[in-house]
């Protein structure tokens, strides 16, 4: 029998179960050369464009940035930075509709291009001479995430320590309409191959398989020409079938192996990268161009000129569509991604990000919207189309019943949401939507179960602690009672004398005590001063908070959000205390009314408190309360010391509340 | 005579079967959680006391002793359904007074906190950190949203806020996406 | 301008449920034509009664369940149910028989289980069994094929026969059943089984005119027509080959074994396959997606079960044809079959093998 590796080398291909053959409609865009899109008026750059954690924003409103300058800092391994796609002015860092199916607002940097397109300094590397950590660092710093759609940080994937049998480059691009990778392969095959060279250097695979669907003859030819000198690179032309571009499906087609459920491809010795990703790696390493633009297929019959475009990241979708002659219909659908897995956009200011490969604006005739959902007739066309060999009709049934145990039994989480089932469903049931909701529910349930478990543990721990404290108290009481009893038994006359003696002794001790306390206080004060001196360059109040907070949180493993939250809170408290001690010591030292921002804030707080107290009082007791509280208010002196003011306000609030309570009673 | 034989035969049979059953019940015993444990596992462990019991476990014990299963607002319909399954009773809707609401967590407006520690004492899951005359804060991930800390606060600086929705937690509710309507151009 | 939010996929194949159902109805046309030619206009009258009853019942129950009526009627599943029941019963059965049957199929078997997609039994077959047990006489009064009939029946005669059980000349159904040999005729399967119980061997029985063409005069052609329709359905990917093939294969195999042991008391495989409702059931009834098994392997087991059951009931049971019983019994086994034939999900229980 032939060894599997030999079979693979002998160009044998396999098949995966299911799959569909939707009309591809790629010819409209794949034959044209890539157009370059002019800069838009505004670029919206979301801080997070990948799977993982957003980097820390480095710019603020009014900053001027150069092209390629990092706008955020990757402060953990799961985060990657974003870069300025062109030079210009930062208008804001604010929440903006995210390029996500939910369209929930996410923190976004708004950049106004200055039109000069001025580069920062660049330092190209020679990948043959530099070290692997250097390469990985460059990849992370260039903000490269998987460009096939998932957006997994590339530096993590390429830093794998396990032995890699097979590096797979995914040029399949199986979704209809999309031809971005096709166009890239046609025009930039040599750069792509250089990127693959760098990946080989990082991963050291035995063979490299480049999978391309057979409906892209030009791309295949270009890649074959570019790979000519490399004899362990194999171009594999695979039959067109959706979804052969899925990671798991492509592995199955090329190597006849399955990624075990819940594991990653590397566990069977495979790593897969997208064509676009390898291009981005080559650019980042060889030319020091971070990931600031990408190829996007703009297609659909509402456009007069469908084409592939090189688009700066952050360009709003409206700019792309308008450049292609967009003539929208009523109730137009604009889809980000392909027709099978893409999502519709609620408005066109959503930007193109690193994972956006297609913008689709179809007419109704072209892609008729789903009609009324009918009953499932259990025809199992969906099961026949499922590439993961699931039973979609059973999953639908259990999704509707919200039976999470059964859903797990029928492997809902192995669904890759490719949409083949919903495509073939004669009853036009939006199956994938049901699964997504079921998955989200299931995740939520898991989270809640975990939380409940923790809450229970904490509740029990608290109960035990309270119980222990109570027992301790009781023990002490008993002990004291015993002692007292013993003393009484030994002779009650001594007791008075003893007490007197104790008092005397205390009086004698007292002065020394007081002195030590004084000394201690002095020492603390000095410490505080020293600390203040160390932080003189920091602004006194609110602004001091965030840097300290971030300092603390970065120092303390931000991986655990809970810890980070506590740390942040501690930092906030510290900052506040520092600020307050700063103002008080200021007063002590100079006694001039320096009056920093703090008292004003305190005054505002007091005013709010007053207003609140008044309102509460009015609500509770129209007559009496007003008089009493107003008397109280007039008595309160104008707050100069912020702490005093805050306390006064708090007292006022407390009083008002109490009054209200008594009133209601 | 016949009667005696019949009685003896039946008695012997009864003895034999009784012995077999008794042996089987020991030999094939199924170890299962006591009922209270199973009920407690279904309850959401918010320890909020909205059921009228001081915590989830006391309520679990009460249910095991025959209390109604519909007194737990944080658990909602899901918990009621599971409890009904477990107890073999009809699932009832939530008590009219206790409507299920959006899950919220407590936030302390830190500028206004006076450090009285009252909320810390009230919190059933130790999710508030702070000390006397120091600012307090809520560990959001540990907060069960029971709102037991809100009332004791003398300065009303605790808010119950809904957990903000993030793309990760989003539940694919496509109907709720706000579509921006732009004038026809 | 506003935008429309929709969930992916945004592309659909254009094959809909109602189209599938229409294909099934269309593929039945040649067989209906043959049946009408063989047995007269009664077939068409029954069809009309059945389909209109089916529609009426469906609409009624949908209205009572407060569901949208028109879109659900347009899925044409009621049409197919009525059609299949109408072609299964004797063409000159009294009119109320088909109405009771169809109403039972739609209301009790389909809608009360939750409507299309939720019924565990095949509605047409469940109704057929109900009628067969409740009205055995009416359900067995098959006339001989027209070529063997003593009397010719006009359209008017057919209407009279269905609605009054007497032709216009006043012949009763029993008289009409009389063949040219002066004997009351039944279906070939029925005749064969009656003769066996009377002590005749099959070769002796086959002397009778009803067996003139191999598998029984006329019935052969009817089954060929159903076969053709079924092949069209397979070619159009409306049904899959698994169920028909395993039904017919297992039936043929069982009868082949029995026949080669003793041809005197067992029917030949050809006779089994081309008589009674064999082809109709294999291609149009057993393949009903709602009540059939849903897994690839399960469908084969399901088909085999039906085939074996049919053979057993035809050979050892009390009824001449057995498809209705076999299909219902197999329907009952479907959840079990489905559960144990679930396909292996990608990435689960992968065999270990190194590259």
Automatic annotation (TrEMBL), chain A:
Biased composition (Basic and acidic residues): 464-486, 511-525
Binding site for [4Fe-4S] cluster 1: 376, 379, 382, 425
Keyword 4Fe-4S carried by entry: yes
Annotated membrane topology: Peripheral membrane protein
Cofactor binding: number and manner: Binds 2 [4Fe-4S] clusters per subunit.
Compositional bias of kind Polar residues: 580-593, 626-637
InterPro entries according to UniProt: 4Fe4S_Fe-S-bd (IPR017896), 4Fe4S_Fe_S_CS (IPR017900), Ion_transpt_RnfC/RsxC (IPR010208), Nuo51_FMN-bd (IPR011538), Nuo51_FMN-bd_sf (IPR037225), RnfC_N (IPR026902), Soluble_ligand-bd (IPR019554)
Keywords recorded for this protein, A-Z: 4Fe-4S, Cell inner membrane, Cell membrane, Electron transport, Iron, Iron-sulfur, Membrane, Metal-binding, Repeat, Translocase, Transport
Top-rank taxon: Bacteria
UniProt keyword RNA-binding present: no
Stretches the record annotates as Disordered: 464-665
Main location: membrane
Cofactor: [4Fe-4S] cluster
Record-linked Pfam families: Complex1_51K, Fer4_7, RnfC_N, SLBB
Database matches in HAMAP family: RsxC_RnfC
Subunit structure: The complex is composed of six subunits: RnfA, RnfB, RnfC, RnfD, RnfE and RnfG.
Name of the protein described by the UniProt record: Ion-translocating oxidoreductase complex subunit C
Organism (species): Alkalimonas collagenimarina
Gene this chain is encoded by: rsxC
UniProtKB/TrEMBL annotation, chain B:
Gene expressing this chain: rsxB
Region feature (Hydrophobic): 1-25
SUPFAM superfamilies recorded: 4Fe-4S ferredoxins
Function, in words: Part of a membrane-bound complex that couples electron transfer with translocation of ions across the membrane.
Positions contributing to [4Fe-4S] cluster 2 binding: 113, 116, 119, 153
Keywords: 4Fe-4S, Cell inner membrane, Cell membrane, Electron transport, Iron, Iron-sulfur, Membrane, Metal-binding, Repeat, Translocase, Transport
Cofactor note: Binds 3 [4Fe-4S] clusters.
Subcellular location: Cell inner membrane
Lineage of producing organism: Bacteria, Pseudomonadati, Pseudomonadota, Gammaproteobacteria, Alkalimonas
Keyword Acetylation listed: no
Coiled coil: none
Primary subcellular site in the record, as a coarse category: membrane
Subunit structure: The complex is composed of six subunits: RnfA, RnfB, RnfC, RnfD, RnfE and RnfG.
Positions of transmembrane segments: none
Homology family: Belongs to the 4Fe4S bacterial-type ferredoxin family. RnfB subfamily.
Binding sites annotated in the UniProt record for [4Fe-4S] cluster 3: 123, 143, 146, 149
Residue ranges of every copy of the 4Fe-4S ferredoxin-type domain listed in the record: 104-133, 134-163
Keyword Nuclease: no
The name this protein goes by in its record: Ion-translocating oxidoreductase complex subunit B
Entry's EC annotation: 7.-.-.-
Organism (species): Alkalimonas collagenimarina
4Fe-4S domain span: 31-89
Binding site for [4Fe-4S] cluster 1: 48, 51, 56, 72
TrEMBL record, chain C:
Main subcellular location of this protein, as a coarse class: membrane
Modified residues (FMN phosphoryl threonine): 187
Statement: the UniProt record of this protein carries the keyword Membrane: yes
Subcellular location: Cell inner membrane
Enzyme class: translocase
Any one Pfam family match given in the protein's UniProt record, by short name: NQR2_RnfD_RnfE
Keywords assigned: Cell inner membrane, Cell membrane, Electron transport, Flavoprotein, FMN, Membrane, Phosphoprotein, Translocase, Transmembrane, Transmembrane helix, Transport
EC number(s) stated in the UniProt entry for this protein: 7.-.-.-
Cofactor(s) the protein needs: FMN
TM stretches of this protein: 20-38, 44-61, 73-89, 210-234, 241-261, 267-287, 299-316, 322-341
Mode of membrane association: Multi-pass membrane protein
Sequence similarity: Belongs to the NqrB/RnfD family.
Oligomer status and interactors: The complex is composed of six subunits: RnfA, RnfB, RnfC, RnfD, RnfE and RnfG.
Function per UniProt: Part of a membrane-bound complex that couples electron transfer with translocation of ions across the membrane.
Protein name in UniProt: Ion-translocating oxidoreductase complex subunit D
Organism: Alkalimonas collagenimarina
Gene assigned in the entry: rsxD
